[in-house]
Structure formats: C-alpha cells, structure tokens
Fold:
Amino acid sequence: MCGIAGIQLRDEKLIPQLGSLMHEMVDGIVVRGPDSAGVAIYGDRELLPEEYSSVSLLDAPGDTRQRVAERLSHDADVSVENMSDTTFIRAKMPSDQLVALVREIVPEASVIGAGDDSVIYKGVGNPMDLRETYRLSDVTGWQGVLHTRLATESAVSAAGAHPYSVNGLSVVHNGSFANHATIRRDLEEKGLTFDSENDTEVASRYISYRMQQLGEDLQTAVEALSEEFDGFYTLLVTTEDSFAVVRDQYACKPAIIAEHPDWVAMASEFQAIAHLPGMEDAEIFEPGPGKVYTWKR
Amino acid sequence: METLTETTVDFDLAEQTVRELNHELHAPTATHYRVLNPRGAHSVAAGINDEIDVEIDGDVGYFCAGMHKTGKVTVNGMAGPGVAENMMSGVVHVKGHASQSAAATAHGGLLVVDGNASTRCGISLKGGDIVVKGNIGAMSAFMAQAGRIVVCGDAGEALGDSIFEARLYVRGKVASLGADCIAKEMREEHREELVQLLKDAGMDQEANDDAYVDSFTRYGSARTLYHFNSGE
Structure:
C-alpha cells in the first residue's frame, strides 16, 4: 500500500500556494504509507531560477559539496543541500551538462532526478516529519507530486522511495507490477540502465524510453504501459508539461480525480484533496479501469 | 432500548478516536449521535447493532457503516471504499459520492447514494438494496446473488458479470453487460418493486412519475452459467 497525490495548477495566482496545498495533502495519504516520502515539484522559480538546473542524488559522499565546488566555476553559482537522504545540487547551467559533471565528480552516488523545471526529494522516515525537512509549505510552482510509501516490492530504503524520475518525467505508484523483471530485461537489452531493484523504476524508464526514443506523447506512452504491464496499480505520471493518471484493468488500487477550472488533482483517497480551494465546484470522479487520463499545462 | 436517552450526543473526531466513537456506538447511551470532523477516517460507525441515528458531518474513508445492522447512518459528505459493506439491515445514506465496492456483500438493509457510486458497486450482493441517484462504475453487481440495485443514471462496463438472482434497474445507459447478464422484461411486480425502492430512498416525486419509472430497464441473469456445460 502507498499513498499518492498530485496537483497541476491552471490558475497562475495559485502558484505561490502550491507548497501549502501540498503540505496539507500529506495528512490525507500518510495513513497509506508511513515508511518513506518523496516529492516532485515543477516550476519553483526560487528553488530553481531561470537558467538554473538541478540534480538530486542518493548515497552522495560526505565531501560532495567540496568536490562539486572545486570543479564548478564561480559563475555556476552552485549550491549543495541535504534534504533527508537526498543531496540536492543546483547550478546555473543546462541540465544535461550538470548531470554529466555530477556523475563524473561523484560517480558513487545515484542520480534520482534532474531537470530545468523540476526538483526531486525522497527519503526514509515519517512523511509528517519529511514534509518539514523538505520545507514543503514554502514551495511554489505549477505542479507537484507526493508519495508516501509502505514498502511491498523492495526494501524500505531511500532508493525504494518514489518518485522515480528520468529527465523531468516522474512516476509515483501505488501497487505492484507482476512482470517488471521481464520488461526490465527487454529494456536492458535496448541499452537502458537501472539505479534500483524497484518495479516502479521500470515503469518510469519504460515511459521515458517511449517518449524519447519512439517519439510518443505521454498519453500514448502510458497507454502502451497499460497494455504491457501486468499487476495492480495506480500511477501518477508527470512531465515538465503534463500530468497523467492510469489504473490497472481492474481498477484495484484506489484513485480519485477532481477537476476544477483552476486546477486538476488526484489522490489515493479523497481526503488528501478535500481542502483544495473551490472543491465544491470541482468535477469529482474515480478514473475508470485501464483508462489513461492526461492533462497538459 | 429503554435506557437510551432521547438526546443527540456530539462526537468530535478531532478530539476523540474512531475506536472511542465505535465503542460508544456499540453500547449506545443516546438515540442520536452527530459525528464531527471525520476528515476521511476509516471504519467510522462500523458495526452498529442498535436502533440509533448517526449523522456524520464530513467525508469518511474506508468501510464506513460496515456490517451495519438496524438504525440509520447518514454521511453528509463523500464515502470511501466499502461503505456499508456486509450491511445486514437498517439504512445508510451517503449524500455525496461513494467510492468503490459500496454495499459489497450486503445481506439486507438499504444503501442510498445521492451522488455517484464507483466501480464494483454491490459486488457479491447477498440480499441488500442499493439506490444510486447518479451513475455507477465498472464491474458493478459482479456475482450479485440477491437483492436489488436501482441506478438513476448510467452504469459502467461489465454490469452484472456472472450475476445470480439480484435484480438491477438502470435508467440511463449501460456501457456494457458482463457475462450472463441480460436486459429483461419489466413486469408489473418489478415496476412495483422499483417504485417502492424509489420511495424508500426518499424519491417520492420520481416514484409517482409514470414516465420516470417507465424509463428504467431491468437487468438480471440469463442463468446460462448456473450449471457446468460439458458441451454435450
């Protein structure tokens, strides 16, 4: 069991409130996952100003800050901060350059997220404490995703926490896949590499592969996942411009969507989104089995 | 029941636990209870076994009014999965939407949902009644054995798959019928049954409107899956 929740804002006036809305969402899903918590935040211009990019790491060595500072020029205005198990690095340079540099500087660390518009934190601990560590209520932006984990498929570890992020695409998952090992092998044969043993990472790399290598849009890539992945799951998939929800063919795992002119939100349980402004005017429905729902910014 | 006082007792879940609430409801000292700040709590008012009225002001999580027996539970909000699951008798009224598996395996009693009910509404129904004023989701009435389901809106895919003797009345569109579920003739006894169920759900105006009642279709079992077919 896990708890997932996310929101895409359509009204720019709500951007400063993203963090406080998400902070309260944790209350509604913490009961579903007390082990670990992760977030993906899109468009926080204080955390990630224009021309800056970020890389989030796990298992970064204690001298990461020093090593990064030595290698990057003063102009890169680099900062390194520990957020629970995540080491968050920010610098004024394109995302792909920063990722390549960081991989070279601290090869023992694993990259759990990177992008020009998105920020990933994840770690082991009580989600009620982690939301404070992540300073969630201060966050701003146009889209945010939350996950609280109760481990089933792999160990309680930061590497097993969600989201699983590749190039700004993030996946959070409630459920488990039955055939992830088979799909992982197929993807490995195509040259993809994995950072964890977790089944959700396979979904994230699968969607990313289809979008980047096959040129599919998010809706098409998630529809392909729905056909190919076997198991019981609800997924929330976000990119730097979209928000998608899919459930397995039997709709085993809970999910509810609320759509309002100013925002669209989804959660494992209604309680996580009941507080959103204007909920009384929102269209509220549970996503149908095997259907893919996508919203573009 | 003589010992119950004719008063309403407030129970604030912001200050007390669901366990304390249910402990009180299982050995009630009053006839009416009002539950405040449920905030999506699970198992609220499960296992009631007395002729009491419980009104819940807000949204509830899983299994609200589960195993309900006698008395009435009203939810002034949304209900999570499994509301009134395995209900035995009495009434449960959800004024918002209900999530999946509403009144699953209910043996008796009546569940009324003013909004929509999601997937698997009335799954394995064993004699309870359900009236949904909105739509119901996919795979509803799966293997429903006995009881009645009234849907004033539309029904999702695979309605009544492998259904036994439950009777379904749907006013709107049915996305698809499950295996062995078919549309059936609406005879007078069915019409009377439907009118009574609408009245029980507080829909007197609709129950007295012939055109409204006539717009329902009855669905039930084709009874082709009852016996193993060896193909001979």
Remarks:
- The mean pLDDT of chain B is 96.
- Residues 188-200 of chain B form the longest helix (13 residues).
- The interface with chain A takes residues 39-40, 42, 59, 61, 78, 80-81, 97, 99-100, 116, 118-119, 137-139, 156-157 of chain B (CB under 8 Å).
- The helical segments of chain B are 18-26, 188-200, 204-207, 210-214.
